[in-house]
Specification:
The chain has about 280 residues and is an alpha/beta fold. It has nine helices and ten strands. It has a single domain (about 5-280), classed as TIM Barrel (Alpha-Beta Barrel).
Length: about 280
């Protein structure tokens, strides 16, 4: 299995691989820039070369980048929507420079304008961005959400609709977050509940479009619509839910990446969470 964690890029993008080694990752997720700012310094050739060399020397098989938290492609406000589209375009171009195959993003929030209109804006945004990057090999992965506020993406139907409205759906994959779908009301804890949830995903979207899984327990209860991650086995999903996930042979080759709370010792915390996942897989 390909397992890992979201790791820091403090000190330079290439430093992510040092942390990945210390944790024992074969997959990682990173930000390619500060996630709480719109702007970023352009990547230099030295940045790109150091990243490439460190990746080659590492045990990491797969990398996903996560976009900025500021981006909202569902916004009805023209200025914010345009800013979000430009920011996501920049993120995609950075991934292309670094040869990162996946860019994970939250679909955004409709801010009172209605889910249908919000989903249309997200799909239209992808069309605009894809038109500007016809040769990009990086695939945008739309992430499932918990459904807080007016956030889009808390049902599998939302994600299917985005792909349906997009002109190049093959360039759009899915990132499934266990905490988010549980908080949105999808059961994972029992064998029957888990199988029902994954069958629904396959029926509505198609498992072939699932490219990355964020493996997070949930601090809050089923259907709470609150996005609060917890360490594996210490939340409301519990070990049984993750045993169901880790023993699902359909998902064996899909990278599974932690976004769990780090605690005072991030490396030790991630190591322990990965140890538990490997134990549950056995």
């Amino acid at each position: 299995m390909v397992l890992g964690s979201h790791v820091s890029i403090a000190g330079g993008l290439h430093k992510a691989f040092t942390m990945a080694r210390d944790i024992g990752c074969t997959a990682i997720q990173i930000f390619t820039k500060n996630a709480n700012r719109w702007q970023a310094k352009p990547l230099t050739q030295q940045d790109i070369d150091r990243f490439s060399d460190a990746w080659t020397a590492s045990a990491v098989e797969t990398i996903a980048a996560h976009d900025s938290y500021l981006i909202n492609l569902g916004s009805p406000k023209p200025e914010l929507l345009e800013k979000s589209r430009n920011a996501l375009l920049n993120e995609l171009q950075r991934c292309e420079q670094l040869r990162i195959p996946y860019l994970v993003m939250h679909p955004g929030a409709h801010v009172g304008s209605g889910e249908d209109d919000g989903l249309k804006r997200v799909a239209e945004s992808f069309n605009i961005i894809h038109e500007q990057t016809p040769d990009s090999a990086c695939q945008i992965l739309v992430e499932t959400t918990a459904g807080q506020g007016t956030t889009l993406g808390y049902t599998f139907e939302h994600l299917a609709k985005i792909r349906e409205l997009a002109q190049a759906p093959e360039r759009i994959g899915i990132c499934l977050d266990t905490c988010h779908i549980f908080a949105a009301g999808y059961e994972l804890r029992t064998e029957t509940g888990y199988q029902t949830t994954m069958q629904a995903f396959d029926d509505v979207i198609g498992l072939r479009h699932l490219k990355v899984i964020h493996v997070n327990d949930s601090l809050k209860e089923l259907g709470c619509r609150v996005d609060r991650h917890q360490e594996i086995g210490q939340g409301c999903i519990g070990r049984d839910g993750f045993r169901n996930l880790m023993q699902d042979q359909r998902l064996t080759d899909i990278p599974k990446i932690l976004e769990t709370p780090k605690g005072t010792d991030p490396i030790a915390s991630d190591r322990e969470n990965l140890r538990i996942l490997r134990e549950l897989a056995a």
